[in-house]
């Protein structure tokens, strides 16, 4: 049941809350993008430098440890850029860029797995959680696109809409 806003307050301002489930998931996914980007940057630099904590004599489908290190480092930069778009700009394009980058990272980690199997499986799991956070929204929340490409969350009123009799 909608309630009236106190005098002098914008009723739509209360509907746009940062405490909503969808907004929280998106923030969580943005933080995961920062975490994964940072860890992948370290992982990529270590692979480029051929550090000794990777499994020795690993065989890859194609390429070698150094080439996959460059690929992981490139994905790290893309993840950090997507995290900036998701967290600072709240841009719709950044969410979908994050989904694509996380999917590519999961694929790259599957190929990178011979060098550090347990780490790759862990990163793939975090990628899947991040993809969920970027794509899942509560049913009461909509993203209204704006002219500049950003999309602040706007919550719909409970009890309004099709099938509710309102």
From TrEMBL:
Species the sequence originates in: Streptomyces kaniharaensis
Keyword Transmembrane on entry: yes
Pfam name, any one: DUF7144
Protein name: DUF7144 domain-containing protein
Keyword Transmembrane helix: yes
InterPro entries: DUF7144
Superkingdom as given in the UniProt entry: Bacteria
Domain DUF7144 intervals: 26-137
Region (Disordered): 143-166
TM ranges: 25-48, 68-87, 94-112, 118-135
Lineage, broadest ranks: Bacteria, Bacillati, Actinomycetota, Actinomycetes, Kitasatosporales
